[in-house]
TrEMBL record:
PROSITE patterns reported for this sequence: ABC_TRANSPORTER_1, ABC_TRANSPORTER_2
Positions of the ABC transporter domain: 3-235
Keywords in alphabetical order: ATP-binding, Nucleotide-binding
Superkingdom of the organism of origin: Bacteria
Natural source organism: Lysinibacillus piscis
CDD domains for the chain: ABC_Iron-Siderophores_B12_Hemin
Name of the protein: ABC transporter
Coiled-coil positions: none
Classification via SUPFAM superfamilies: P-loop containing nucleoside triphosphate hydrolases (SSF52540)
Length: 253
């Protein structure tokens, strides 16, 4: 499934937060959004997944006009892992992940054996089988993050949007979560802060600065010292990571 968000513009109050940004995620691509705090990554993502109404722009998931389609129709195809996962009422981890099945059910339709199997698999993929009966509210930030990902996997979307999915996660879980998302082998658009992770997992990157697409291309084209210095106002050198053999970065002021 392809995502094409075209000419997106979002204004909050008098401030233009996203300015004429277009993003294309081809079939099964893992595409990253990078850029400094406050540059507009979350706002762009929210305008794509309908949590915010853009002033301008269109979003298509293949031939589905996302901004004009019902919540249910969109969530049958699109899964979202947002940045803040707070809830005011408590559920077990199993109940939380089962909520991922909701878009595929009619009103009052009960959970089937198939739903249970899908939830079990989502819990296994995110290493949460031992947490099934735990209360969601009692979990750490990183554990909650994994439950939200499991819920989104149980939704069986054909496309996933993630806003800083590795927030709160230690290095091992950052790798596990991004590998898990990559293994789903579906189209992904993710805002990422860690440039080394972005270089490793993304097929293509969009760099955002002041609400605009500042650069885009494969990681080697975007993650150059010049572009990184320009985006983050720091000094940067790139090198080959001796452990991963991938692109790595040294920063300074
Ligand atoms: N509801 C709002 N009212 C006013 N300003 C807002 C609102 N939502 C976002 N902004 C502003 O829009 C700008 C972009 O915010 P956004 O959350 O999209 O950035 P981001 O790139 O995702 O940042 P981060 O990396 O810190 O998560 C920020 O200056 C933020 O303060």
């Amino acid at each position: 499934m392809e995502l094409l968000a075209k000419d997106m513009a979002v204004k909050i109050g008098k401030k233009e937060i996203v300015k004429n940004a277009s993003v294309h995620v081809k079939k099964r691509q893992f595409v990253g959004l990078i850029g400094p705090n406050g540059c507009g990554k979350s706002t762009l993502l929210k305008s794509i997944y309908k949590s915010l109404t853009p002033q301008q722009g269109t979003v298509f998931l293949d031939d589905l006009d996302v901004l004009k389609s019902s919540e249910k129709k969109v969530s049958q195809r699109l899964g979202v892992v947002g940045q803040f996962n707070e809830m005011h009422f408590d559920l077990t981890v199993h109940q939380m992940v089962m909520l991922g099945r909701t878009p595929h059910k009619g009103m009052l339709e009960s959970d089937t054996q198939k739903d249970y199997e899908i939830v079990e698999e989502a819990l296994a993929r995110t290493n949460l089988l031992h947490y099934k009966e735990r209360s969601y509210l009692s979990l750490s930030g990183g554990e909650k993050q994994r439950v939200i990902l499991a819920r989104t996997i149980a939704q069986q979307p054909q496309f996933m949007i993630l806003d800083e999915p590795t927030n709160h996660l230690d290095i091992r879980y950052q790798i596990e979560i991004l590998s898990c998302v990559k293994d789903l082998n579906i189209g992904v658009l993710a805002a990422l802060h860690d440039l080394e992770m972005a270089a490793h997992y993304c097929d293509y990157l969009y760099a955002i600065k002041d609400g605009e697409i500042h650069a885009h291309g494969v990681p080697e084209e975007v993650l150059t010292p010049e572009i990184i210095e320009d985006l983050y106002q720091i000094k940067c050198q790139t090198f080959t990571n001796p452990v991963t053999k991938g692109l790595s970065f040294a920063y300074g002021f």
